[in-house]
Structure formats: C-alpha cells, structure tokens
Amino acid sequence: MKNLKATEPQSHRELSGRVKSFPFLALCLCGSVAFLLLHLFAFADAQEASPLRWGGDAEGGAPYLLPNPKNPREIIGFEIDLMNAIGKQLNRKSVFVQNQWDGLIPGLQRGNYDLAVNGIEITDDRKQQVNFSIPYYVCGEQLSVRVGENAINSLADLKGKIAGTLKASLAQRILEREGGMEIRSYENQNNAYDDLAIGRLDAVLMDWPIAVYYAKPNPKLKFTGPSIERMEYGIAVRKEDAELLKQVNDALLALVKSGELRRIYEKWGIWNAETDQLFAKFSSASQPGQVYEEFTQNITKKLTWRERLERYKSYLPPLLLIGAPMTLLISILGMAVAIVIGLMVALIYLYAPQPLSWLARAYVELFRGTPLLIQLYLIFYGLPNIGIRLSPLVAAVVGLGLNYAAYEAENYRAGIEAIPRGQMEAALSLGMTRAQSLRYVIVPQAMRLVIPPVTNDFIALFKDSSIVSVITMVELTKVYGQLASTYYDYIGVGVMTAAIYFLMGLPFVRLARWAEKRLATDQRVAVTAKKRWLGVGAKPAEG
Amino acid sequence: MSALISVDNLRKNYGAVTALCGISFDVEVSELTAIIGPSGCGKSTLLRCLNGLELFDGGSVRIGEITLDRNNGLSPRDFNARLRQLREEAGMVFQSFNLFPHLTALENATLAPMVVKKIDRKAAEPKARELLKKVGLGDRMDYYPSQLSGGQQQRAAIARALAMEPKVMLYDEPTSALDPSLVGEVLSIMRKLDDEGMTQIVVTHEMRFAREVADKILVLSDGELIESDSPDVIFTSPRDERTRNFLRSFL
C-alpha cells in the first residue's frame, strides 16, 4: 500500500508579537473576504445535485491520483477513471475531494466525503472501522534493484543489505517480518528509487503499480523476482451506509462484466495477472497503456531549456490560483483571530481576578506548549465527537488562530508591562476607570511597541499555515507537493514555491514597518490633529 | 462655613513602616497650600492619598461632598466608584508629567472629558483649546509630548487636569524634573490660577514660591505633620526645631 508523503513542516516560531489596531484589522478582513468570495466563485460550479463525493490524496502520485502533467489544475489517475465510471453507473457526478492520505478514513467518518478511494488495502484492522467494497484491484509488492545487481532475487537475499520502502506500508511490514536487513522508510517513492539508483540502498520494495511507474522507466533500475504477497484495494464506505455499499458493489460488478474496468487498467498499463484472476478473465497484460507511455516519457525525457521554461510556466496557475490565495486567506484570518484572542487573553492575564487570570495563563502555556499539528487534528477530527463539526477552512483558521493567540498574548503582555506606571496613574487620576485607561491610554501605546514581534509572528504563521494540509486544505505547500511528486521536480517547484511565500510575505513586512514609523511617537513630525492614525486617537463619547 | 477639603487623622503604613501617622488639616476654597519637608517625609504619599492613588489605612479624606473613608463598608465596586468621584474633584499634576505620548497636547486635554464625562468632541475641543491658550500653548496644541520642552509638557499636563474642572489641583513636585530655566513658566501658571481663585495643594521644594504665594504651609517630617501655619510664621519664626533645621538647609 502506498503511503503518502506528508512531511509536516516543523512549526517554527520566533518571538511573538501582536499587531495593530482596528483599521488594520478591517483591512485584513476585507482582503480575506475578497479572497473567500473569489474562492467560492471558483468552486461554485463543482457543486451539483447529490454528487458522489470521494476522498483521495493527489500527492500520492501515479498511477493512482496525480495532477495532470499537461494541465496541473486537473487531477487524473486510474482511480479518477474508476470513480467516473462508477459515478456513471450510479447516475451521480463523481467529485474528487483532496484529503491527506493518513487521514482518509477519519475524513470519511467525519463526513467530508462518502467514499475513500486511494490504494487503500483491505485489512482486518480497517474493516473494524469501515466497510469495504469488493476489491477493485489486486497486486503484490515488487522488489527493484540496480541494473547489474544479480545477487538479489528474493526477500531472503536481502540479509545484511539495505532495503528501502514507503513509511507505514505493507511493504515495510513484509520487510520487518523477513528481518536481517537494514530498513529505511521514505515519505516519497521518488526519493527511495533515487537512493537506490545512486547506491544508498540495495533494493526497494513497493506496491507493484508504483514500481511500474517509478522504477521501471528508470534505465538504472530493474525488477527482480516475482511479485510478493497479495493485497486488495477496496473502496471504503462508512459502516452505516449499507445501501451505498451495495450500489458501489453492483456498479463494480457491472464494470468488471462489461470489461470497462479492464480497459481502464490497460489504459494505465497496470492490468496484471492477479487482477485478471480476480476478474476471472483469461487474457493477461497486453500492450503498455497509452497513459503509461505518456507519463513515463514525461518523467524520463531530457528537457531543453525552452521546454523546461514552459513546464515552469505551467506550474504557475496551480501555485498562484489555488495554493497562494488559500495560504493568504488562512494566514490573514488566522492572524486576525490570534490578535483578537491574544489581546483578550493578555488583558485577562494581567487584570482579571485570580481564577480567570490563572485560566489565561493556562491557556498560554497549553497552546504554546503542545504541537500545532496535534491541535489541528483534535479540532478537526476530535471535535466532531462532541458534535462540533467545523469545515476544513474554519478549522484551519481556528487552529492557527488559537495557537498563535498564545504567542500574541505574551507579546501584548510584554508591551503592556513596558508602559510606565505613570501612564495608568495619570489616566486614573483623571477619573477614568481601569478599563477606560487600558482602552484609551495603555493598549494603544502597547500596540505600537509590539509591532515588530507581531510581524515576526505573522510571517511565521504564514509559513506554518502549510501544516493545514493535514486537515485536507489544499494550500501552497500542498500544491507544491502534488506538483513535485508528479514531475519529480523538487528543486524547480520548490524554488518557485519558496519565492511565492517570500514575495507574499514582503508586503506585510513593509506594511508593518510603515505602521511602526507612523505610530512612533518620538519621530513624528509636527502635525495635524486630524490624523488619528488607526483610530487610536480617542473617539469615545460620540456615538 | 466648612472647609472645602478636610483630612482627618490620616494613617498609612507600608508593611511595618509608618508613612503617615494621623495627619489632619483643612483647606479653604481658593487657598494655595504648600506641603514641604525633607525627602522621604511622606509629602508625596499624603498628596496621593488625597485622590486615592494611594489607599490609606485609617482616617478619612473629604473633598467637597465626597468622603473617602477606609472603613465605610462599601462593596469593592461602590468603593471604586467613590474613588473615581473623588478623583474627578481633584486634578493631579505629576513630577514626571505623565502626558499620554500617543496623543497631541489637545487630545491629552480632551480625552478625559470625552471618556469620563461623555462630553462630545465638539464641546470638549473649544474648552481644551482655551485652557491650552491659558497655559501659553496656543501654538502647540497639535504637537505630541515628545515635541514639547519639559516646561511645555508640564503646562500641558496642567491644562489636561483643568479640563476636568476639578475643585482642587494637586501638584506633586511639579518643577523637580525641570531644567532650572523652565521652572518659572510653570510656577507662573500656578500663580495665575491662584489669582483666579483656584484651590491648590503643592508638594514642593521651591521655598521662594511657597513663601510668596502660599496661604498656608504644612511641614511634614517622618510622616508627621509638625507644623501648619502662614508662610510668615513658618519662614520667620518656626516653632519646631525640625522645621528650623529643614529650612536652614535651603539657605
């Protein structure tokens, strides 16, 4: 079974900080809403009456699910063809929903989609959580070695050697069971085969279709031995959806009978004896499928500079139109939440009576001291257990917001404590309440002080936002992963993605510098009482 | 007629240290009262007790109708409300000005009336402008504190306090942080207010000012009110040995 590549970026974090005032927030919110609308608009036409929604991870790569090399905004794969065919049988439109591979079953159970289809092996463990359709494909594990390596022909020959495979896969379990060798686990098939080609590994064991797509086309590698063990891929359905399960099984049977399923597998070049047996048909693998040819050509052929540029150009639409707006939206909304909650927490911490201030402190320690990744999992997959079901976008914003609020609270606290005592005394001596003194005198001054650390945090959050791909959000880093694994081009896509993050962050850095200057009471050049920047001025009584 | 302000048996401790031990005095309307005494004698503490910036341990303070009493059985909420009433009656000027640095001189003087008295900006601004003109800052209203000299900042702080129309002005060493050449401009504002009949209480080391302008001088030593009399008496024939020693240090 293949595994996914889901490298989580470490949540790195610098100081902390907090930002600004209401007009700035308003600006951010307007921007976010605009993005949101844009987004909704872009996806609006995908909705239709009762579509057949199914989850998979397009980062897994060929031949299962992958962005179309010719048009990366389109997801293709034999499973897309399979589900389109099933959709046609059921008279429902097949709609693919991107979801981190590890989270496919949890996502199914929380109702993000109705079926999970992505090389999911039917196992007893999984059967306790979900029901499976009849198998739609069968294959084994394939051992690959370097061309010229003749000593390794079976698992037994691996004694004392180094073998690579995908993390948490059936292949890994097989290798562990065999024992006697050093096992290296990879997030991504490309990296494993690469290491095999350059001699870091002596052999690689992976699902046969993956080997067909990633090892076979490589002139430095070859298959060795027969396929090992046998696994069946099934379509996962929630336990309670018995009716849907029956419909899916009927559709599969019809597709087997009509030969449609075989045509799909042949087109993708993955028709094999095991599946043949399963389908009780007689012919064996015929010619390499047409899609197979195209794909392997694509990743093996040497590109001219011109072609390379063309290819880089083709990365732009998915990166800029799908990834970047989502990253911006999540970051800006997340930061807005962090700033508002952070300020409240800081004020409670500093000024509220005992039990409350203790809670504020506990909040800070808890959210700061536990991994963002786990917080997101709990919010997205855990909360539904108590009846709170957040959409992925809301969960992402809430998760990032709550986490960063802990850091922002500390920034505010530092800022507020840095304001001389005399300021509070002067405000109180004029008859203001403590709350009024904070609102009009202390907090506005503290805000200016903390602009630099808050900007820091925003940039950190901006990059941390890539972590939300674990709760099915397709943002910039996720798009990067999909493209990189499709084209096998980590450097080109990586540099472009990093540049996009950098360029998107710049305007915010400039804005913060500008605000800082504007608010710096000690540099202000004479003037105009009318400009109460950012509304901090004093606008109390009226209204 | 009863006095505008009366302080009765005021006591204050910092832990085991006694800061004020049973101070009592009255201040009549329009009087300027100077509080003098060696450093650490409790003058600032006394002044800060008058508007509740320091809470005292015993006795009471009354300004006009408002009485603050340590053991009056008020709920914390009512007590805070009482504190604010008292503060509205007493304008406070600090040694280090404590102007709000993020607001212009004009905004400093309109903030409290707008926030506390809910006066609308249209009404608060003309009044604040008038007060700033009065303290000689007619051409500096839109400047931020950092753009003003120390003397100008202190005058702006006086205007800010006056904007709340207090019954009494309290000054805590208002000229101690100023360059000697700027002291005069602040004292002259206080003289002007005295001429207009404002009631003022000043903690100061400016003996010449106290002698010329004060109606009454309170001399504190070690938290004790050792002498209270007219400037003539205090400066020419003090009764207490400690007063004589203190004044001698200024000669």
Labels describing this entry:
heterodimer; A: 543 residues; alpha/beta; MetI-like fold; D-Maltodextrin-Binding Protein, domain 2; 3 domains; five-stranded mixed beta sheet; elongated; disordered N terminus; disordered C terminus; B: 251 residues; Rossmann fold; six-stranded mixed beta sheet; four-stranded antiparallel beta sheet; 9 helices; 10 strands; 39% helix; globular
Structure description:
The complex is a heterodimer of chains A (about 550) and B (about 250). Chain A is an alpha/beta fold and about 550 residues long. Chain A has 20 helices and twelve strands. Chain A is about 55% helix and about 10% strand. Chain A has three domains: about 20-35 and about 310-520, MetI-like (MetI-like fold, Orthogonal Bundle), CATH 1.10.3720; about 45-135 and about 235-305, Periplasmic binding protein-like II (D-Maltodextrin-Binding Protein, domain 2), CATH 3.40.190; about 140-225, Periplasmic binding protein-like II (D-Maltodextrin-Binding Protein, domain 2, 3-Layer(aba) Sandwich), CATH 3.40.190.10. Chain B contains nine helices and ten strands. The longest helix of chain B is centred in the C-terminal third of the chain and has 16 residues, at about 180-195. Chain B starts with a strand and ends with a helix. Chains A and B meet through helix 16 and helix 17 of A and helix 2, strand 6, helix 3 and helix 5 of B.
